[in-house]
Structures are given as C-alpha cells and as structure tokens.
Amino acid sequence: MGKLIIFSAPSGSGKSTIINYLLTQHLNLAFSISATSRPPRGTEQNGVEYFFLSPEEFKQRIANDEFLEYEEVYTDRFYGTLKAQVEKQLAAGQNVIFDVDVVGGCNIKKFYGDRALSVFIQPPSVEELRKRLNGRGTDSPEVIESRIAKAEFELGYADKFDTVIVNDDLEKAKAEALQVIRNFIEK
Fold first, then answer.
1. 126-136 and 141-155 are packed helices; what angle lies between their axes, rounded to 10 degrees?
2. Integer Cα distance of 39 and 76 in angstroms
3. DSSP collapsed to 3 states, 21-73
4. Which terminus of the chain is more solvent-facing, meaning fewer CB atoms within 10 Å of its CB: N or C?
C-alpha cells in the first residue's frame, strides 16, 4: 500500500523545482491525477494529465462527496482530487504526491491522518518571494502583488503541516525534502 505526500507552498517558493527533483530519486512517487472542468489543452488526454469532467459532472461528484479536496477557481472552472483515483494509485503501491494549495493540503491530511505526510515549502521571507516573482519576469506588478497577498495568507497555515522546509538555499532544501520523505516512506 502506498503512502501520501502533500506539498503546499506560496507561489515562487520553489515547490515545483523540489517536487521535480524528488520524482527523479527512485522513491516510487506518482502524481495524483486531478480532475478539472476545463477542456483539454493541446495534446492533453483524459486520465493522463487530468480527468476532464463537465461542470455539471463535477458538481454532481461534489454532491456525492467524491473529492478529497476541490476548488472553484472561477465560475464553473473546478479543479479537485478524486478519492477513488488516489485509492487506486495507493492500491497499486504508488506513493502519491500532491501539489495543492494550503487548504486542499490540510483537507487531504485530515482525511488520511498518519498515512499522509504534509510538507510546507516556505520562502525565506516575503521580500525574497517578491524578488523571485519579479525575477521570473512573467507577471505584471498587479499579479505579483496579488500573489504576495495570497502568500501572506498561506504562510499563516505553515504550522498546520507536519514539516516546514525553508527554501533559502535550493540544494539544502532539496536534500532536506529527500531525507524527510525517505524517512516517511521507509517507516
């Protein structure tokens, strides 16, 4: 039976970089495949990148309590994690990794308890986060400020996670994440 590893972090904390590194470390990690109500983009296939549901189907499944967590990003645009899919991956012996927002992370942890490890990747400071987001050069100043505001909200959730890793040095943060996950999987 696989285990569950939950990652949450404010945008720009280096979470994706750390997760991508962990996926190369032979830990039998597999992403949980989320469901969405948006149409497929490009070459995306149902059941590979996402499970594509209509907004009606998504709402029906919410009503049936089929999601571990979900979010309505804007009207009729949903993203969520189906319980049945996670159970299928765990039964196949995969260690399922989640890349979710803080609220979703707390919900999954609450549902699975000790079978799940929740990890919060924290930027060294809000100022450093602002520098990183500006450095990406992909967002307007307004978008950056809204991400900073969201980050300040999310940082308030850090103490609800099993482990907090401060990413002030990427190599050190990667090594720390690897150690924590290895210990969890092996116990």
1. 150
2. 12
3. HHCCCCCCEEECCEEECCCCCCCCCECCCEEECCHHHHHHHHHCCCEEEEEEE
4. C
Angular region, 29: left φ>0, alpha ψ -120 to 50, beta rest: beta
Q: Is the pTM of this model over 0.85?
A: yes
Amino acid at 3: K
pLDDT digits over 20-42, tens only?
A: 999 999 999 999 899 999 999 99
pLDDT in tens, 41-73: 999 999 988 999 999 999 999 999 999 999 988
Rounded CA-CA distance 92/81 in Å is 17
The amino acid that residue 136 corresponds to is R
- Residue linked to tokens 């296939």: 45
Q: Could you tell me which residues are beta bridge partners of residue 4? A: 96, 116
CA dihedral 97, 94, 22, 159 (to 10 degrees): 40
The CA angle 149-155-157, to the nearest 5 degrees, is 125
Q: What is the pLDDT of residue 8?
A: 95
